[in-house]
Amino acid sequence: MAGSEINGAAARGTLNTRLKVGQFSAADPNAPTDVPQLKLMTPDGAAWKTLAPGAVFNDAVNLRAYTTGGARLMRYFMFSLVTVDASGQMADLRGGLTSLDPGVTAPGEGQQDSGLVSLPAAGLQGDIYVQVSALDFNYNRVAYLVPVTLRRSGTPGAVTAPTGVAAVAYTLSERIGYIMGVGPQGAPQGSNLWVSVSWAQPASTEGLTGFRVLRAAAAGGPYTQVAFADTAQCSAATKRCTVSDNTSTLEADRDYFYRVTAVGAAEATSDAPALPSTHTLLPFRPQLVSPAKDSLGADLLPTYTLRTNAFATGATGARFTLRTDDVFTGAGRLTMPSVVLQKTTSTTVTDASSGRVYFDSAGAAAGNVVNYDAATDLLSLPHSLDRVALKLTPAPLQANRRYSWYVHMGYAYRLQDPAQPQSATNPIVAYAVYSDPDTTKVVPGGVTQSYTDVYDFTTRP
């Protein structure tokens, strides 16, 4: 179906499930190629007025956008608040997607309207920009950048320097489109990398007007402002304040140092970290090796081998959960125990739940249940690993049967000091996510990344 997409559908028992599909031409040569025209508005009492350059907002930014001129069907409107640093780079970008339901407006009929959109202005003040972009179904894109002023109603007072500053970088194996949801942490469109920065919630917020998040490539600086926040980003449950560094200047495989400044009548900045706050990882893409794709005559107790590609990303280790499915029935799913491959003082493979050691490069080879070859980066796991580890008879696959195997869940991670074991003082500071499709996320932050390779094979007669 050209120009349409189905992400999934489910039918349960006798319950009727209806699926609405919008059918539109993909890159229709007869469709207009001129960019869409938008009208940007802001509330004026019970009415609306045009958003003019230099408009003043107090505490919140409320907007609306709708199409004008030749009517057309839009994929989305994207609203953002933007700050620009001295070099001209966008230093902070907040906003959200306003998705549109194609079923409510037929192509070429009427206007499409976002309705009232309230943008998160927490921590921002002074001269900023409103950015509104839109895309129609023939992939014509338009963007508006309007300078505005944001005033804060709070009275500034004395503040103290933030403490407990921490950072966790996230790299996804796929780049993100505007339509793909990525959970509360958020990442900019066209990106697969962002950093979640957090710090201890202050005991008192009296006199506090906001926080400025600073980043540098070295502990001594220079530090550049990359995000704003205020107490709206603080959680009463965790006693932590959290904001994302979504700037386009982030690069993979880099050390970054973060500091946070509390802003009031004056400013107070956290201490410079002794170690990098995070090290951004390259995308993580493990490669299935055997049983090979579409192979025949596989053993009934196969050994599953994959090239991890974890340490090449800059990671300290990786976690994998393998699955084997019966291709014809969809039943007989075998989920292997989740294993952790880690390289610190030695290279080990352990059970992610129990901590049972399956492999240790510093131990006797005879005691290893699985194998990891550092020279080739190949990790080999026996079928029915949990039973093999307990010295029980493994349950074989059926003969002359087609199966598929894949990495159901997998991510690489990096410790703050990669040479030392994980501890409360040596936490995970970066993730590279390959696949994390379960409802309960393994990776903190609620990241959804469901891409994975699947290899089919047929067992011997």
UniProtKB/TrEMBL annotation:
Q: Which Gene3D superfamilies match?
A: Immunoglobulins (2.60.40.10)
What name has this protein been given in UniProt?
Fibronectin type-III domain-containing protein
What is the originating organism of this protein?
Deinococcus arboris
> Which InterPro entries does the UniProt record give?
FN3_sf, Ig-like_fold
Q: Which domain of life is it from?
A: Bacteria
Lineage of the species this protein comes from: Bacteria, Thermotogati, Deinococcota, Deinococci, Deinococcales
